[in-house]
Specification:
The protein is α/β, with parallel strands linked by helices and 238 residues long. The protein is built from six helices and ten strands. Strands 1-2-5-4-3 form a five-stranded antiparallel beta sheet. The protein binds flavin-adenine dinucleotide. The site of flavin-adenine dinucleotide has 26 residues, from β4, β5, α2 and β10.
């Protein structure tokens, strides 16, 4: 429910804060449009599987989804990585957050099981909105010695961010380019490399490019696919 009258958000148990005392303890711009936000609080009683997200109330009448990029072992500090695209109340809310601000959160949720430990090769695709999910994938793929590749479509100003986040084996593509065009996706090297034809593909981010990529994977190779569009051009929330 991305938007609803204020009374609905005020009365639905789902949106009433269930984790008291959370505050922003650090913020950091990784570029002009990507911000990492650290939250301090007691998250001990909650589970954080890969892809766990919060529905954050970003105004009196709107909630938006943001993924937990990482949480420390003590479960008292977690990080979000958010895209400040400047066109919506979620982006504006995240942009103005600063250390010391209080933030209301309900419990983390998951709708998809993104990680399948039985697979040996994983190809991850996404845009700036997927950087947090990619960051949460990395440690488990490394510890379980999986083979992996990250494919990102990013604004030019964010090309350096996968490396900055330690997302090794990343290839960055310009936005509004290759993944907009199914015929060009067919030429991706990874789709022509026999070693990756049975990989597990995790596709998130822009609904349109996720759909384009999924269509080509399905017609061209055998790979299993998990897809979740995170935003759609012209639509508020998802
Ligand atoms: C499960 C899940 C997890 C998510 N995790 C993250 C995360 O960790 N970090 C993160 O930054 N985002 C994440 N998102 C995406 C985020 O919730 C959406 O981008 C959301 O629409 C932002 O809300 P908004 O109020 O800024 O814009 P909205 O009010 O939803 O939209 C206003 C306008 O902005 C456009 N818009 C929305 N998002 C984008 C975008 N990414 N790029 C360009 N234009 C856009 C819309 O098409 C619309 O025209 C996640 C989404 C889902 C479903």
């Amino acid at each position: 429910m991305p938007s609803a009258p204020k009374w609905v958000f005020d009365t639905l148990n789902f949106f009433i804060s269930q984790i008291p005392g959370i505050h922003v303890c650090q913020t950091e711009y990784l570029s002009r449009s990507v911000k990492r936000i650290s939250l301090q609080g007691n998250f001990e009683k909650f589970q954080f599987p890969i892809g766990a997200f919060f529905d954050i109330r970003v105004s009196e009448t709107d909630a938006r989804r943001y993924t937990v990029a990482e949480i420390n072992n003590e479960k008292n500090r977690l990080k979000l990585i958010v895209y400040i695209h400047g066109k919506g109340c979620g982006s504006d809310f995240m942009n103005q957050l600063k250390p010391g601000d209080r933030i209301k959160l309900n419990k983390p949720r998951t709708e998809q099981k993104y990680y399948d430990k039985s697979v040996e090769k994983i190809v991850f695709f996404g845009d700036e909105t997927s950087l947090a999910l990619a960051s949460s994938f990395l440690p488990i793929m490394q510890s379980q010695k999986k083979q992996y590749r990250f494919l990102f479509e990013l604004d030019a100003e964010n090309n350096h961010i996968p490396e900055l986040l330690g997302l090794e084996n990343s290839i960055v593509f310009p936005k509004l380019d290759l993944f907009e065009n199914p015929d060009r996706i067919k030429d991706l090297t990874i789709l022509k490399n026999d070693d990756w034809l049975d990989a597990y593909f995790v596709l998130t981010g822009n609904v349109k490019t996720v759909q384009n990529f999924r269509k080509i994977i399905k017609t061209q190779i055998n790979g299993r696919i998990k897809h979740h569009g995170y935003w759609l051009q012209g639509k508020k929330g998802l």
